[in-house]
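User: what does the whole thing look like in 3D?
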Amino acid sequence: MSASLERGIHAFKEAIDGPVASFFSSCVHCGLCAHACLFYTETGDPKYTPIHKLEPLRRVWKQEYTFWGRYARAFGLSKPVTDEELGEWETLVYDSCTMCGRCSMVCPVGNDIAYMIRRTREGMAAAGHAPEGLIGASRRAVTIGSPMGVKLPALEAQIRHLEQEAGLTIPVDLEGADYMCLLSSMEIMNFPEYIGAIARIFKQANVSWTISAVISPECGHAYMAIRWEGPNLIGKPFSFQVMHIMEVLDQLREEGRLKTTGKEKQRLTYHDPCQIARRGGVLEQPRNLLNIVAEDFVEMPEAGKMNWCCGAGGGVSANERADELRLRVFNRKKSQLDAVRAEGLVTACSNCRIYLEEGLEEYHMDIPVTGLTETIAEHLVEEGEGGER
Amino acid sequence: MTQISNEAEFRHALAGLDADRQRAVAALFVKHVLPLCDDERIAPVTDVAAREDVPEDKLAEALRTARTTTTDCHARCGAAGDWSAQAGYFVARAAVAALTPAGQMPGGPAWQAAMASRMAKTCAAIVTCDDSLGRDSEEQYRILVDFVNS
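Assistant: Here's the predicted 3D structure for the full assembly of 539 residues, as structure tokens:
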């Protein structure tokens, strides 16, 4: 056994905690998870069945932690997981899973399959099986602090120019503030207008930016990381509250601190980012906000907690090898949009946003995509203006 | 119109233009930052946007080209950021804004084109560490005044 395979198998064993072991024991092989998976439904290929993607981890669980598995291994009746098999499974684990969690929602015995994929990825990475794009992003996140290599001077330049151009104040490291806003690298690089939108909204609502509650940006991964992964990593709850920007804005709306004027005339629909809606439960807030600025808001079929993924979550967007498959399975989102004849698409995740744009482009669909925070900011009552609530 | 001196006046003046003239002035904003974009597809579509008598099908075709360019050159999630390339991405986005029909874009096409053009300048400023490059608003005020008075 090679050193990397040994590291991988060791990582698999470490990954098999109580929940993972009980999930494997509980699986009734019903196949319902297949019909919840974007990659299975859009390709019809059974290899994309979520539980099948976990086969290497399942075999290690069976051989190491079950009586009959150990018995079979001792008598040479089962084959150990090989490096070639891990290589074969690499594309299944990384390219054809966005960690959207839809499979976990439909499992009749409550198995969190997305969590098991996550644990499988840990073992695969330890064995040297991970896409180049994700390896590079992880390295930059550790060494620079940003997966895209965004450094503080670049963010400071963005902030400085927003302040100069729009006469806004964007406080950085302000002691005693009420909220601390986090930004994703994608927002700083691709959608800096989000920063200006936040500043305009908070100026109107007279919000001071704090550290007693942390605001996660329009980024599904950031929300999952700061809300759950962070406390899990340090082994205790944070001493502050974590809120998604949609939760904060809707709270401001409820308190009457968000004053808007006019409405978007085109038929708008909302794409629920998986990590924010399905895993985070932030479902009503974006809809409450859209209803104050959209005249013709329509829901896509299966919107909300069972919404279909954009196809680019869970590191798939960082993995160039997965581009063709990602665009193929976007067909599901196309069908959802076709069903409501949407003229505009709003979302609250910068990763979803940019890959929705790519998918729409691929399928020749003429639908602009916007961020919800910016859409709200565009309808703010300016100083000296009347407006409606 | 003799002068625009702040954002409120700028937005108000842009909002007062009809759809064709919004598109035309948006094209001028894009042309002002065009040297920041290496992609050869953007200059011709900006020329289309600048014409006030352009047929609908030509506009739609130009918008498709601009959108394709934008999706081709955005920063991939998790990829190492390149601010020079990013300046080009924002020029392409400004072209998309200019060509998008009025009513499909919050704030209006001209305003969005102006904002994206400024973001392109900011990216260029990050590359050169030259803050003066990022101050494009006054130049846009001048472009708008000249356009309205022409």
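In plain terms: Chain B touches chain A through 40 residues (CB under 8 Å). Residues 46 and 107 of chain B are 20 Å apart (CA to CA).
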